[in-house]
Amino acid sequence: MDGISHRHPALHWLHVNLFSSPTNTILTLLAALLLWQLVPPALNWAVFEATFSGTDSDACKYVDEHGEKVDAPGACWTFVKIRWPQFLFGLWYTRNFDQAWRPVLAFVLALGIIAALALPMFSHKQRYQIAAGALVVYPFVAYALLNGAWLGLPEAKTADWGGLTLTLVLASLGIIAAFPLGVCLALARRSRMPVVKGYAVLWIEMFRGMPLITLLFIASVMLPYFFPIGTEIDKVVRAIIAITIFQSAYTAEAIRGGLSAVPRGQYEAAEALGFGFWKSTILITLPQALKISIPAIMNSFIQLFKDTSLVLIIGLLELLNIIQVAARSSQWKGYEAEGYIFAAATFFFFCYSMSLYSRGLERRLDTSLAARRAQQD
Amino acid sequence: MTEANGGGAQEKSAESIIQIRGLNKWFGPQLHVLRDIDLDVKVGEKIVICGPSGSGKSTLIRCINRLEHHQKGSIIVDGTELTEDLKSIDEVRRDVGMVFQHFNLFPHLTILDNLILAPVWVKKEPKAKATETAMHYLERVKIPEQAHKYPGQLSGGQQQRVAIARALCMNPKIMLFDEPTSALDPEMISEVLDVMAELAREGMTMLVVTHEMGFASQVADCVIFMDEGSIVECSEPGKVEEFFKHPTNERTQKFFGQILHHI
C-alpha cells in the first residue's frame, strides 16, 4: 500500500478512494461498467444523433430505402425549440407573443426582490421592510402585468395563463399564503386552550391526510356551493385555495417541530424577563424555531412546487400538462420524451435553486458558524 | 434575619421583600416537591440554598418568579401576592431577575441585543437609553468588548456574566441564581462568583442555589439546607462558617460531610 501511495498523488487518490479493498474494487468496476453501458447511448440519443434544426416534425424524420418516413434515431429537440413559448408562457401568450415581456418582467422583478433579500448590504431591519413591502405590493404588480387590463394592455384572463408562468404563480402564491397560516396553526396546536388546539389539530390532520388531488377536486366541485348561485369562481383562485390549505398543514407541522426543538430554557428566560406570550414568540422563540425548521419547510415547498402539476385535473395547463398536450398533437406525436426531459430539467432548475437558497439562508443564520469565522479572523 | 419553618415570622413581614407562608407544591398527583415552606427575605439579604439534588431548592426559587406555580400557601414579593392573575405575575417578574444554570442567552441575538431586548420591549425604554444601560452593565461584568458577538462565540463563564448583566438591565430588586456555576468548567467558576460577590457587596437582595461553600461563607447572611422538599435547617445570622462545621441536624451533617469532604 505504501509503495503505491508514494508514487503519484493521482494514483494515491485512486487507491484510497476507489481500490482500497477487494469489495471497494469490485464496486468501482461495477459502477464503471454501468456508466459504460448507459452514458454513451444516452449521449448518442440526446446529442450526437439528435435533431436541433427545422421547423416541424419532418426535420426529425428521414425517408428510408422503402420510401417511408421513419423517425430519426436521435432526440428531436425541434419539438422543444418550436414549442417553448407555449411551455413557458401558455397558449394565450404564444398567440400574442408580443406581450410575452409581461410574464418575463414579472419574473425578473421577483428575482430582483429575492436578490435584494440575499444581499449583505441591507441590515436585518431593512430586509424585513423590503420583504414586507414586497409581500404587499408584488402580488398586485404581478397580477397587473400578467392580466394586463389595469395597465390598458390586451387582457389575459387567469384561465389563459399557462405553462411555467402558471406553475410559478400557483407555487409562489401557495407558498406565500400557506406560510403565515402554517405559523398560526403551529402556535395554535401548541396552545393550552383546548378549543384553539382542537381546531388546529383537526385542520392539520384532516388536510394532511388527504391527497392534494382530492382537495383540488373538492375545490373545483364543492366550492361553488358555498357561494351564491351564479357566482363564478376563478379556476386559478380555486386551485390556489386548495394548494394553500393543503400546504398550510405541512408548513405547520414543520414549524411545530422547530418550536419543540427550541430549548425550554429559552421560553423560561423570556418569561423571567417579563415577556408575554406574543412578544416572547415573535422576538425569541419563533425566530429560532423557523431557523431550525428551514430544511423541513423548504422540503415541503419543493414538494408543493412539483405537486402543482396536479391542477391538470381542474383543467389548468401548467408546465407539465401543456407539454403533454403539445406532445399529443398530431404533428408531434411520439416526441413526449423530449418534452418530459425539458419539463424535468425545468422543475429541477427551480427546485435546486430553492434548495441552494435555503442552504445559503441556513448558513447566514448560523450564529455558531459565525463564531468559527470570527475565530479564524 | 431569616425565619424558616414558621416561628415569629409574622411581626417581621413588614420589612420582608419576600414572604413565603405554608408553601406546598406537587408535580402531578404524587410527587410532593415542596412541603410547608416558610421563608422571609429582607431587603439586601443574601441567602444561599443548598441540599441534595431533588430536594426542591431550584423549584423553590423558581416559584418566586412563577416559573413554577404552587398549589398551596402564599408567596408575596415586594407587596404583590403571586396568584393566577397575570398582572400580578408581570409585576413580580419586573422586580425579580433570574440567572439560570445553562445561561439561556438568546443565541440568535448579539450580546448587546440580548441585553436591550427586554428593556426595550417589556419596559418600553428608548433604545439609546437601554443601550447605554447595557454597556454600563457589560463593563461591570468586564466584557464590554464582546457586545457585538453572538453568545455562541463566548466561553461559558463569559456567557454567564452576560446573563447576569441581562438580568440587571431590568433593574431588579431581587436576583435569583439557579446553580449559576454548575454548568461551568472549573477555571471559569471564580470569574462568575466574583461578579456575584460584587453584586452582593452593593446590597442586592439575592437568593442563590449553589454548592459553592466558599462563596456561601464569604457572601451569605444565611445558609438554608433543604432535603425532600422541606427546609431542614438554616444557619444562625452571621454564623455561616459555624453552620458548616457544626450543623445540628443529622441529614445536614451527612450532606456537608459529603460535599465539604471534596473541597
From TrEMBL, chain A:
Name the record gives this protein: Amino acid ABC transporter permease
Pfam families: BPD_transp_1
Organism placement in taxonomy: Bacteria, Pseudomonadati, Pseudomonadota, Gammaproteobacteria, Candidatus Tethybacterales
GO terms for biological process, alphabetical: amino acid transport
Membrane topology: Multi-pass membrane protein
Statement: the UniProt record of this protein carries the keyword Transmembrane: yes
GO CC annotation: ATP-binding cassette (ABC) transporter complex
Molecular functions per Gene Ontology: transmembrane transporter activity
Source superkingdom: Bacteria
Organism: Candidatus Amphirhobacter heronislandensis
TrEMBL record, chain B:
Cross-referenced CDD domains: ABC_HisP_GlnQ
Identification of the protein by name: Amino acid ABC transporter ATP-binding protein
Cellular localization per UniProt: Cell inner membrane
Pfam (any one): ABC_tran
Domain ABC transporter: 18-256
Domain of life: Bacteria
Gene Ontology CC entries for this record: plasma membrane
Assigned keywords, A-Z: Amino-acid transport, ATP-binding, Nucleotide-binding, Transport
UniProt KW ATP-binding keyword: yes
Gene3D superfamilies attached to this UniProt entry: P-loop containing nucleotide triphosphate hydrolases
InterPro entries: AAA+_ATPase, ABC_ATPase_HisP-typ, ABC_transporter-like_ATP-bd, ABC_transporter-like_CS, MetN_ABC_transporter-like, P-loop_NTPase
Keyword Nucleotide-binding listed: yes
An example molecular function term from Gene Ontology annotations: ABC-type amino acid transporter activity
Membrane topology note: Peripheral membrane protein
SUPFAM superfamilies: P-loop containing nucleoside triphosphate hydrolases (SSF52540)
Family indicated by similarity: Belongs to the ABC transporter superfamily.
